[in-house]
Amino acid sequence: MSFQNPVFIPGPTNMPEALRQACYMPTIDHRSPVFGKILHPCLEGVRKVLKSDSAKIFIFPSTGTGGWETALSNCLNAGDKVLAARNGMFSHRWIDMCQRHGLDVQVVETPWGQGIPAGTYEAILKADKNHDIKVVLATHNETATGVKSDIGAIRKAMDAAGHPALLFVDGVSSIASMDFRFDEWGVDVAVTGSQKGFMLPAGLAILGFSDKAIRASDKATLPRTFFDIKDMQKGYDNNAFPYTPPVGLMNGLKLSLDMLLDEGLENVFARHHRIAEGVRKAVDAWGLELCAASPEFYSDTVSAIRTPEGFNATDIVTVAAKTYGMAFGVGLGEVAGKVFRIGHLGSLTDAMMLSGLATAEMVMVDLGLDIKLGSGVAAAQAFYRHGQASARKAA
Ligand code: PLP
């Protein structure tokens, strides 16, 4: 008999059994109204999760990376100027994709561990008198460093500069786990995927487009076929895709949205915040530090934890998998070997998180780090007990 631990990688996340069952469904005619009964609730539910009244939602058989490409290829022309900050592996990869599409990216190099500098964006946008910059990119939650950026502040910077660029936000590791305000923040394209906050396997790129972004797509000439939102919209008008949709995954998404909305978005965000705070208490008790440079950058979905100089953080991930059958995330890019990551998003409870912290602790002691067994777990327990007591009182 083989047993399975929960995973603590920052996506794909643990899948509730009901979602697994929902994905595993009999074949239906995907060009019939039966598919419309799955498709349209998905579009409506995603719009609610984005906190938008009017965003046009698109779902492609792809992943977050395909979502980036959908955003770029539908709204831009070769040679267009884009403003982006590089503060981790995922913002780096989106910049790389822009460059491969022949876009001219003005990169704001930002220390890994810090958020997007809205003030620098504002100064650059103010100096761009001819409005050559067509799009501002922002990675809401840098999964590589566990850093959250303030998207509201970026919108304010754009408005203060009186700049008409579109705002594209990568919410792959934030949407459906952390507060995301498409309308309030004036987001033009939001990108996410199915395998993190939505608790599903990878396989769906999920996007919201503002009216302004849709208008930009009328004139944009970058080549696109599979990711063409106009073709996709025509499909939706007939309860279909322009090609064969991943029906099972979308049936899973429909149920995932029901689960998230039943729990209540604010409760989902509060649960993620509480679990993340417990992890941060543990890190503190271990005497270690987060990669995120200060509390305003702390992510509620993933913590990247720095290990002492000279210690290979990747060993923690390797030994955890080999000895205890538990998955944590390795450091990526600039912070490879310097951090290990604990993913704390999706279908997760305080008690599940304690098992992850207990295991991380055992591994670090096994590897000779100067950490007291039980110290981080005790700190998290004390915090979770308090959180549960207030939740019981409120109920
Ligand atoms: N953006 C962020 C912030 C991510 O965390 C990831 C994946 O982890 C991606 C983009 C890429 O998404 P995918 O791996 O689904 O293509």
Short description:
This protein has helices at 17-23, 33-49, 64-75, 89-100, 118-127, 151-160, 211-219, 229-237, 247-263, 265-286, 314-324, 350-366, 375-394; strands spanning 56-61, 81-86, 104-109, 133-139, 141-142, 147-148, 166-170, 189-193, 204-209, 289-290, 302-306, 329-330, 339-343. It is of the alpha/beta class and 395 residues long.
Provide a descriptive summary of the structure in words.
A hairpin with an 8-residue loop joins strand 12 and strand 13 (339-343). The protein has helices at 17-23, 33-49, 64-75, 89-100, 118-127, 151-160, 211-219, 229-237, 247-263, 265-286, 314-324, 350-366, 375-394, and strands spanning 56-61, 81-86, 104-109, 133-139, 141-142, 147-148, 166-170, 189-193, 204-209, 289-290, 302-306, 329-330, 339-343. Helix 5 packs parallel to helix 6 and helix 10 runs parallel beside helix 12. The model has no long low-confidence stretch (mean pLDDT 97). Strands 1-9-8-7-4-2-3 form a seven-stranded mixed beta sheet, with helices on both faces. It has a four-stranded antiparallel beta sheet with strand order 10-11-13-12. The chain folds into two domains: 17-262, Type I PLP-dependent aspartate aminotransferase-like (Major domain) (Aspartate Aminotransferase, domain 2, 3-Layer(aba) Sandwich), CATH 3.40.640.10; 264-394, Aspartate Aminotransferase, domain 1 (Alpha-Beta Complex). The radius of gyration is 21 Å and the shape is globular. By secondary structure, it is of the alpha/beta class. The protein has 13 helices and 13 strands. Bound molecules: pyridoxal-5'-phosphate.
